[in-house]
Design brief:
Length: about 60
């Protein structure tokens, strides 16, 4: 896990092992809410965590 501090207008970039780049930019921050803009190619799926079914891990 990584913890970062970003200000409005600042970004972070995630690069996958295959070279895909996903750019996340902080658009707005108020009280306990943050608005994030995600820029990625159309074949990249971006979901809110609560929209994804829990994955089951087996040992």
């Amino acid at each position: 896990m990584i913890v970062m501090t970003r200000r409005i207008g600042e970004s972070l970039v995630i690069e996958t092992p295959s070279g895909e780049r996903i750019e996340l930019t902080i658009q707005d921050a108020q009280a306990n809410r943050v608005r994030i803009v995600a820029l990625a190619s159309q074949d990249v799926n971006i979901f809110r965590e609560e929209e994804i079914e829990p994955q089951r891990f087996t040992a």
